Amino acid sequence: MTSDEPTEEQRDQAALWLAKRTGGSFGASDARKLDDWLNADRRHRRAFDDLRVLYAQLELPAQRLAARTMFRRKLALGLRPRLGWLIPPAAAIAVFLGFCWLNPSLVENWQADIVTHQEIVSDITLPDGSLARLGADTAVGLDFRDGRRRVRLLRGEAYFEVRHGVPGTFTVITRGDEVRDIGTKFNVDMGIAETDVVVSEGAVAVIGSNDSVPVILREGNETTLAGGRVGKIAPTDTSLALSWMSGRLVVQGARVADVVRALERHSPRPIVVRGRLADRRISGTFPLTDVDASLETIAQAVNATLTRVPSLLTVLY
């Protein structure tokens, strides 16, 4: 039996619909699309109704607060004819910001053309014929207009096999940093503060937003982009760096925080690493299809404690 509980993806979509409907730019075409979406799955309607209740609960306290003092009441009366139109979009923005706080990925998903969830690999053929293999919880935006071949990696990890003989330089952009194809297959892994680039075939030109000239990264090498600058180039075992595509994470001397971040992409709930444990180093092979088992292995290896809060988060400390 299918659960009536909406998925996170459905809740995100419901939030977007509610923000659009209450924002004042909702036409007849939008109304038909919303009805189609609501009728497609009963969980869609439940997610939307839950958000409408939350919206009402947020709007009422705001109205009471605005009328709490005589000054505010007079100000509201004086400005209402001119600024009353601001109330619906302001309320919509408040709801949207609330959901951004609950789900930081919401804004990135809105900006993206493609968003993956917990699939190990999602193969995408780009408009120019290049192949992108996207990891779990990855969001990308595409710009292939007017001779441009640009992919904006907003979140996650992606492996590219670039098609040649097509006009324009194939470029991957992360946080303003750029990885430009020279004739290659390469992997880009966007972390919280750093982006790792690995070349498995050919070469790329890598330039940070604060760099003046690009650095050439060749087959079998890797580098890290941080603070808008390219780090040191170092040899790497590409089979380890690309192991995520086979459903396993293989690491040697990696920070616990980085390993957990990679596993979190395949988890239905957040995973938090506390204290100095984040900087401990670990080696091993961890299945991406069983995140709980991988976390147990990590906890045993570094003598840590693993605590789960059902449906909310997992804490490693």
Automatic annotation (TrEMBL):
Entry coiled-coil feature ranges: none
Domain FecR N-terminal: 12-51
Segments forming domain FecR protein: 113-204
A GO molecular function held by the record: sigma factor antagonist activity
Highest taxon in the source lineage: Bacteria
Pfam family, one: FecR
Matching InterPro entries: FecR, FecR_N, Ferrdict_sens_TM
UniProt-recorded name of the protein: DUF4880 domain-containing protein
Species per Swiss-Prot/TrEMBL record: Rhizobium lusitanum
